[in-house]
DNA sequence: CGCGTTTGACCTGCGC
DNA sequence: GCGCAGGTCAAACGCG
C-alpha cells in the first residue's frame, strides 16, 4: 500500500472518529432530554388532579390579576414537533396581548385574552413545555361570561369535542402515553449506542471508506468520460 | 380601514 | 430598599 493511500485512509479514519464522537454527544443529549422528561412525568404524577399547577413557572401569584381562589386549569396539548406556533384551537377566540421569555424556559410565553365578549375576563397563558417542545402548556385563568362559551370549549366542562387535530393531555396518564412514545426512541438510541460501542462497526465503516477511496479514481475517470464536472 | 400581532417599556409583587 | 422577573400596556406595524 503506498504512502498516499495510507495517508488518505488515516484522514478518513479520523473523520469517522469525529463522526463517532458527534454521535456520542448526540446520544448524551438525548439521554439528558429523556431524564428531563422522566422528572417532568414525576412532577405531573405528584400533582395529578384536574387542576395541575406543576408546570406554571410563575411562582409569584399576582392576586390583583386573577383574584379568584380557583386554581388555573392547565392543559397540555401535543403538537407536531416542527410546529412552532402557540395557537391552540380550543374553540374560543383569543386576542394576544403580550409575549414574554421567562427565565427557566427558552420558549416564549404568550398571553391571550378572550375576544368573544368585550367584558370577558377569561385569559390564558401558552408556552411550550421546557422538557418536550412538542407539548404546549396552556394555563386558563378566569371564566368566560358569555353564553356561547358552552358551545365552543373542548375543556372538561363541556361535552367532548374531538374535532381538533391536536392531542389534548389533561392528566398524567396521557402524559405517560407520550413517555411510552419516547420509550421507542430510547430503544433506537440503545441500538445506535450499541453500534457505536461495537469495535467491529467502526472497523466496518473504515473498510467501507477505504473501498470508496479506492473506487473513487475509477468514478472520477467515469465522470470525466461522461463530461461531468469533477469536484 | 379595522382588527390582530409584535415588541419594547412600564408596572408590580416577591425575595433577599 | 433594591433588584429581579412575570404580567400588562400601548404604539407601531402588517394583513385582509
Automatic annotation (TrEMBL):
GO terms for molecular function: DNA-binding transcription factor activity; sequence-specific DNA binding. Residues 83-149 form the WRKY domain. GO terms for cellular component: nucleus. Pfam families: WRKY (PF03106). Keywords: Coiled coil, DNA-binding, Nucleus, Transcription, Transcription regulation. Its main location: nucleus. Residues 6-47 form a coiled coil. It is found in: Nucleus. The keyword Glycoprotein does not apply. This is WRKY domain-containing protein. The lineage of its organism: Eukaryota, Viridiplantae, Streptophyta, Embryophyta, Tracheophyta.
Amino acid at each position: 500500500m503506498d504512502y498516499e493511500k495510507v495517508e488518505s485512509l488515516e484522514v478518513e479514519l479520523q473523520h469517522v472518529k469525529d463522526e463517532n464522537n458527534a454521535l456520542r454527544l448526540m446520544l448524551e443529549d438525548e439521554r439528558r432530554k429523556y431524564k428531563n422528561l422522566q422528572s417532568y412525568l414525576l412532577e405531573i404524577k405528584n400533582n395529578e388532579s384536574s387542576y395541575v399547577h406543576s408546570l406554571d413557572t410563575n411562582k409569584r401569584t399576582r392576586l390583583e390579576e386573577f383574584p379568584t381562589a380557583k386554581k388555573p386549569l392547565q392543559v397540555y396539548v401535543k403538537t407536531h414537533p416542527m410546529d412552532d406556533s402557540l395557537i391552540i384551537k380550543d374553540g374560543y377566540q383569543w386576542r394576544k396581548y403580550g409575549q414574554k421569555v421567562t427565565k427557566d424556559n427558552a420558549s416564549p410565553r404568550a398571553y391571550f385574552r378572550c375576544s368573544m365578549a368585550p367584558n370577558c375576563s377569561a385569559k390564558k397563558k401558552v408556552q411550550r413545555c421546557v422538557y418536550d417542545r412538542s407539548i404546549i402548556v396552556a394555563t386558563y385563568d378566569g371564566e368566560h361570561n358569555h353564553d356561547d362559551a358552552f358551545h365552543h370549549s373542548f375543556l372538561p366542562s363541556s361535552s367532548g369535542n374531538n374535532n381538533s387535530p391536536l392531542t389534548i393531555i389533561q392528566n398524567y396518564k396521557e402524559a405517560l402515553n407520550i413517555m411510552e412514545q419516547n420509550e421507542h426512541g430510547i430503544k433506537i438510541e440503545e441500538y445506535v449506542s450499541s453500534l457505536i460501542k461495537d469495535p467491529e462497526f467502526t472497523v466496518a465503516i473504515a473498510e467501507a471508506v477505504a473501498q470508496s477511496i479506492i473506487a473513487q479514481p475509477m468514478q472520477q475517470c467515469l465522470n470525466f468520460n461522461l463530461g461531468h464536472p469533477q469536484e
